[in-house]
Every structure is written in structure tokens, then in C-alpha cells.
Design a protein that fits this description.
Pfam families: BPD_transp_1 (PF00528). This protein is mostly helical. It contains 9 helices and no strands. The protein starts with 11 loop residues before the first helix and ends with a helix. The mean pLDDT is about 90.
């Protein structure tokens, strides 16, 4: 068989639509998982046993159930009890909830790694707990967690390919349709492979740049 990418030329707009849908879903899911992760991470480091336990249960559940099972529950299961959500919203919500469980662990680790002396100094200065968390603890924890958070976000992008199983024509779903129409799965999935590699590599580079920017003062002080 001759390798020929030219046969995909007329399908490029359709594939780009799928890529744009993937980008939208992943962007919203990253934001959602970060918000959830921050809330749950704060709960897991809270002095309240109830909040701590609730957060731990959430993390245990969504870290130990296959994502495709979670996705099918939201998309195929919830309508049985009268809750109907479109495929795109379902995908974003499912990715956000699943990603939030992993993000919360990263945030929690970042919070626990903070020097207790920093927090004690802030308390002595008379700052409120909410102010200390918002202005001191959270920025330090996020700065230390950028790289592991980047790994979580890259994994979300890769996991988004499963959204094609609920009829969402994101990048993978679009590629499946093109492959079935052209009978050229090798070329189609080669392009898909390259597209995901380029997307995740770009995100990794951006995360690395952000990490260096946020930690530039530490690097300068070490010189």
C-alpha cells in the first residue's frame, strides 16, 4: 500500500473542527479540574475531620474507577433517572471531576511541602486564615506544583480521546469517521498520532516556560 496523505486534503476542515472541539473541551476541563482540585486540596489539608474525610472519599472514588465507566455513567446512566446532559457538557464535566481528583493530590502535596515557619510568621502578623491561605499558602503551593499539574493536564488531553465513545466528534471521533469514509486508516491515524503528540508536546513546553517564570527568583538567588 502506498502511503498517501493527499487523500485526506478534503477532510482537513472536518478534522480541524474535531481538533477545535478537543481544544475547547480540554481547556474547560483543565479549568474545572483546577478549581475542583484547589477546593478538594484545601479540604484535605483542613483541620476539620469531616471535610478531610469527604475530600478523601471523593479522591478515592474517582481515582480508582476507569474513566470510561465514569463517562458512561454520566452519559448513559443519568438519563435513566431523568437527568439529560449533551455529549459535550458530559465530557467536560466527567473530565473535570476525574481530573480534579488527581489535581487535588498535587495541590495537597504542594500545601504540605510549605515550610511551617512561613505560615507561623503570617499567623503572628495577625492575618486571617482565609487571607493566609489565599495570599501565601496557595501561591506557594501552586508555584511548587506547576510541573506535576502539567502532567495531570497532559493526561486530561490524552484521556479526552475517550469522549468519542459518547458520539462526540472531537479529534479522535472525527478521525474515526474519516477513516471509515476513506478506507485509509493508516494515514488517518498517523495524522491523529502526530496531532496528539504535537498538542501534548506544546502543552509540556508551555508548562515548562511557566514553571521557569514563576520560579525565576529562586533560580536567580541560587546563582
Amino acid at each position: 500500500m502506498k502511503f498517501d496523505l493527499s487523500i485526506l486534503a478534503k477532510h482537513i476542515p472536518f478534522l480541524l473542527e474535531g481538533a477545535w472541539l478537543t481544544l475547547q473541551a480540554c481547556t474547560l476541563a483543565v479549568i474545572g479540574s483546577l478549581v475542583l482540585g484547589l477546593a478538594v486540596g484545601a479540604m484535605r489539608t483542613s483541620a476539620s475531620p469531616l471535610l478531610n474525610r469527604l475530600a478523601a472519599v471523593y479522591v478515592d472514588i474517582f481515582r480508582n474507577i476507569p474513566f470510561i465507566v465514569q463517562l458512561f455513567f454520566f452519559y448513559f446512566g443519568l438519563p435513566e433517572i431523568g437527568i439529560y446532559i449533551d455529549a459535550f457538557t458530559t465530557g467536560v464535566v466527567a473530565l473535570s471531576i476525574a481530573g480534579g481528583a488527581f489535581t487535588s493530590d498535587v495541590i495537597r502535596s504542594g500545601i504540605l511541602a510549605i515550610d511551617p515557619g512561613v505560615i507561623e510568621a503570617a499567623q503572628v502578623s495577625g492575618l486571617k486564615k482565609s487571607t493566609i491561605f489565599r495570599r501565601i499558602i496557595l501561591p506557594i503551593a501552586l508555584r511548587a506544583s506547576i510541573r506535576p499539574l502539567g502532567s495531570v493536564f497532559v493526561n486530561l488531553i490524552l484521556t479526552s480521546s475517550i469522549l468519542s465513545t459518547i458520539t462526540l466528534n472531537e479529534l479522535t471521533g472525527s478521525a474515526k469517521i474519516v477513516a471509515s469514509n476513506t478506507f485509509r486508516p493508516f494515514e488517518v491515524y498517523f495524522v491523529l498520532l502526530v496531532a496528539y503528540a504535537a498538542l501534548t508536546y506544546t502543552v509540556s513546553i508551555l508548562i515548562g516556560m511557566l514553571h521557569r517564570h514563576l520560579n525565576r527568583h529562586q533560580a536567580e538567588g541560587a546563582v
